[in-house]
Amino acid sequence: MKDKAAIYIRVSTQHQIDKDSLLVQRRELIAYSELVLNIKDYEIFEDPGFSAKNTDRPQFQAMMTRIRAGEFSHMLVWKIDRISRNLLDFSEMYRELKRYGVAFVSKNEQFDTSTAVGEAMLKIILVFAELERNMTAERVTAVMLSRANNGQWNGGKIPYGYDYSPETKVFTPHPTEAQIVQTIYDTYEEKRSLIQVAKYLNLKGISSRKGTQWSAVTVHKILTSVFYIGDYRYNMRDEEDGFKTKDESEWVVIENHHPAIITNPQFGRVQELLQSNSRLAKRQFKTSKNVHIFSGLLVCGKCGCNMSANTGRRLPNGWLPSQYACHNRRKGLCNNKYISELTLGPFIFTLIQIITNNPDISDTRLESKLKKALNVSYVKGLETLSDPEEADSYTPPAFGISERDKLLEQKRKIENAMTRLKSLYLYSDSTLSEKDYILENTKLADELESVNELLANLPKESEAMIARASYFLLADQISKGTFDFLEHAKVMDRNILRDYIHAVVKSITVLDGNVIEVIWQNDAKLTFPSVT
């Protein structure tokens, strides 16, 4: 085949285009092809205004397609970085050129890979370029570790809830955000669900610093950060090993580095709850034994204390219904009677079915239906149900498939962001300092860890699919008024029943074995002061 050169020209900025850089490269490379390589048959491929961060450039791709078709014997460029600053991209391209017998020639570096010396020179240049980047990274990392050990902030995104003064180099709690952080911790202790905390914040119109809605991932990140108890932690992850957590001996931890927002006792309680919920999520589909459907919702009508759950007596059919008693009753401080699931379940589910299937809350017949079905003398608070459908505004449980999909999508976005950031730092014409790269990469690694932890705590997709189907089957039966608690509770997964009730009801007050008040998740309140 007669020698033919593919001349590739690229500049990345409009400034370079305006300064005739393209014309200079074209003129010099044509002359080099004709006078030095003695190749007068050539074709020029130009990509003006494209960065070298990757090879996704139209004329470069067109050139490579024709090289694969066997049209060229040489590729001629101004400098190696006109092709790519990405070592992997360049190496892949160079392997292709060798496979098709095409020589790579760089005019400014003065080597020609058609010769053994030229190929060796290319490999040496690439090795030393990589070495320089690694040495720079090591120097910057050492400086940042030294600063962290001295308690100095290494920059980056200021943690939510704090202000930072560059002049005094001091963190102070942000007046508004610090209160929201406290709310997040308090709400998690109450609801014990990341998704429910995020939902609570969003329903209250509380937005994140960026003005976006809260998610389980952002809530989890705040709940697990020791920054909120006043500690500064650095050097936790190994960038060279997929940002895996390093041994604790390598961490830099400065205690009492700045004012705390959260107390140590509360932070400890929240970590225990997170771990407990993590273990529960992994085993919740293995058994429904001793799952108390109304646990965490019941309030004593005499002393206001929470009511705890226990397993009652086994029925002849083998069912073990739960029963609930005031905490203070065990201590002899309260004489409120316990209430059995056999009484509580039919009452609450019947109440939900009647309200859901009677959209006109102003209809006097609704109160009559409730009084008759629930065996109460009157109902107070129906007017608080501004929209009766809100009383049944349930959301899929935390283990739903949609939640898995959201987390997987968020994981994909974070991983893509980390890839783009690395390309921007190593190979782009724009300037990004080593320090800024490490800080931003560490922040993304923290977010990725939170997502991976939440994903690890989700059950398998097959289990989630069954749970989701059961959940919506339950909701459908309730909307049709065909749900019988005493029949379904014996055979249905009690986790499904529990998640449904917790999504609909905020609290249930019990007095002497009877329900006297129900507060929905939308804060509507129904009261049943006396029982016939």
Can you put this structure into words, describing what you see?
The protein is an alpha/beta fold and 532 residues long. The chain contains 17 helices and 18 strands. The strands form 6 sheets. It has a 5-stranded mixed sheet, with helices on both faces. Strands 12-16-17-18 form a 4-stranded mixed sheet. A hairpin with a 5-residue loop joins strand 9 and strand 10. Helix 7 packs across helix 8, helix 11 packs antiparallel against helix 12 and helix 13 packs antiparallel against helix 14. The longest helix is centred in the first third of the chain and has 34 residues. The chain is elongated, with a radius of gyration of 33 Å.
Keywords:
Hect, E3 ligase catalytic domain fold; 5-stranded mixed sheet; elongated; 17 helices; Rossmann fold; 532 residues; 4 domains; 4-stranded mixed sheet; alpha/beta
Give me the secondary-structure topology.
Elements: E1 5-11, H1 14-18, H2 21-35, E2 42-48, H3 58-68, E3 74-77, H4 87-99, E4 103-106, E5 111-112, H5 116-149, E6 162-165, E7 170-173, H6 175-191, H7 194-203, H8 216-223, E8 232-234, E9 237-238, E10 244-245, E11 252-254, H9 264-283, E12 298-300, E13 307-311, E14 322-326, H10 327-330, E15 339-340, H11 341-356, H12 364-374, H13 401-427, H14 434-456, H15 461-480, H16 485-488, H17 494-504, E16 505-511, E17 514-520, E18 525-527
Parallel strand pairs: 1-2, 1-3, 3-4, 12-16
Antiparallel strand pairs: 4-5, 6-7, 8-11, 9-10, 13-14, 14-15, 16-17, 17-18
Helix pairs in contact: 6-7, 7-8, 8-14, 11-12, 13-14
